[in-house]
Amino acid sequence: MSAIDDSKADEGELQDSEDQIDKPAKKKNRSFFRGETATFHPNRIDLEQPDAVWNCFLLGITPTDPPVAPGQGLIVLGDGIAAPITAGATGAGLKSLTPNGPEARECGIPERLRRLLDKAIGDKRAKSGKAADLRAALSGADLIVLCLTDRSAERPSHAEIVEDIVESCRLLRKARPDAYIALALSPCPPPRVPAGQPQAAALFSAKSALRSAIDETCRKLAPLDGRLGYFPAFEIVGNICNYPYGADRRSLADHARSLIEAAFACAYVAGVGTEALAAAHVAARAADIVAGNEMRAVAEAAAGQTPPAIDTAAWPGEAEMVWDRGLHRFAFDGLMPARPVIGADTTIIAFGSCFASNISRYLNSIGYNVATRRDGVAYISRMGDGIVNTYAIRQQFEWAWENRKPQIPLWHDYDAEEFGYDENVRLRTKELFDAGDVFIITIGLSEVWYDDVTGEVFWRAVPAERFDPSRHKFRIVEQAESLANLEAIHALIRKYRPDAKIVLTLSPIPLMATFRPGSCIVASAASKAILRSALDEFFARHRGQDDGMFYFPAYEVILGAFHQPFGLGETSDMRHPMLHAILFNMKVFERYFCDTQLKDEDIADEMDEMRYRDFALVGPDREAVISVISTEKVEWRTKYKGPTIEGVARRKNRRIGPDGTMGEDPAIVARRKQEAKAEREAAVAQRKDEASAKRLAAVAEREAASEARRREADQRRQEAAALRAARVRPPR
């Protein structure tokens, strides 16, 4: 996914054009403008190179020349990654001036950071105490690092977080005009998460709020302040290491700490070459494989234990993840509908980015009525996974329902072929929206191209043959803009389809490329954070007011529940999730949203298999797992249906239950599962028959109504003709 060329193939292995008819043939080999500044997402081979951390993360993001030299002073405020940053800097010869005590660590929360700096710098009346100590330490600091970790319990808005960070930077600049200020985000989860949200949702919403606020701060201040920037520890840990944490899944493992130390020293301290960073990267990758096997042993041991009473507010360790077999506490608790909202007679409209495409295909394959799968006219059907920024999605609703037409051509297909504003297409889109009972909308992009004259935003990049540098510009859609677009989409659906259900999701697929300077991975993290922060604030506004709206955490499941969610082998682009990870999301969606026969036990068994595969990718079963995944991928691609995920090596017969006692005979268990599978297949067949019958009845009803309207029109014309013939002209 990117603002450059989000081609159909770019959405990868889980797309097709099945059920879509009357697609126009390609006329020319057109393409989108790419320019000379585009940076593409690295693939697996790129990330395995010794110089990957420098080339794929630091280059273009951190200073071209290290801003400090050995012997100069360093202050690190915040927590999470403050220790490895300090270790890396002091190991390269800097002097740590960070005051001792909890105050410096509490600065990981922007509100507290601003408050402490305001006391230390803004109010100089204090002659002793923590504020005075910090003021004295700052007087010798040449490099100041702000390691943000969390937001306050009051959950401030995005704008408030940005204001706190900007003001903190302003105060630091006032105290140290020549010091370099580096902003960083700790990837480490907090020990506890706020109540009222699943653990993953709480973590991702907090980290996204901080990451998007840091990004906005840098874009505001960096053009005016050449000695301020971002250190991408968050992205390095999340993309280089599959197993960056210990068994508690929140304390950095030694190899991840060493990588942060080496990366920071290389980026900021003069005289530290890239050779040391390359060596640290090679060592970290080797250690990561060992860590994977250790985590696998922890998970296997936990599977044979009786789960204890679990603190649901504590961040789950590896054992707790095993015991939370359906990821209920981790991802879904409190977000799912209390009862199914999709039945055989439900009309589903799904479009946007990858999840909408995947779920529409999956629901269609099990017999539900996905209208956008059976339409070949509306753009939301023909480009169902290519309308990915919030402006583009909003445009479709405004065009269809309120006939708002952009001033210039903005819409193009996967091959840069121009889509016009055809009235028949608009009416077809309106017809689909008017019939929609459930809207599934996936957003995925914050980077856009726009027309500088009109201010209007393109769906995608500008076609190369039309690109005009004087008016076609690139920019980031701010968090406030995305939030406003979500509000507008919600208002339109509620105006025209007040009883419809709305399901919003965020695509986990990173950018294919970026026009921002530097790393595509770093740009992608910011892009997703902006959208996730907007979604979080949007749902917070409507909590308790609209019970027909839901957030499905596909993003959190892919990135938070799996150690290796993305592709395998040398051809992996490190962007498209593994098929089994995506199909797990499909199964969970079916379980909670559809009138299905799936039960919690089925989801738990499915998750057991997914976790087995996830760990097996670093174990002796790797080749067997890859073989099965490849077979399932072919079935998904060629038969247009979700394969039945069968166990590769279910835990040794499953004779021993989680409490250590002998379980049922495996043959009985297998027969029961086979019977349950037959019941589900029969239910699917019945739903297909019911949906087909309802569709035929609806067609017949529409045809009958049309015929009745035709007859009435003929009758009115005949009556009018008779009146005209009988009319007597008045005398002159």
From TrEMBL:
Residues 156-262, 348-589 form the GSCFA domain. It comes from the Bacteria. InterPro entries: GSCFA. Residues 1-30, 674-732 are annotated as: Disordered. Residues 1-11, 674-693, 700-719 have a biased composition (Basic and acidic residues). Pfam families: GSCFA. This is GSCFA domain-containing protein.
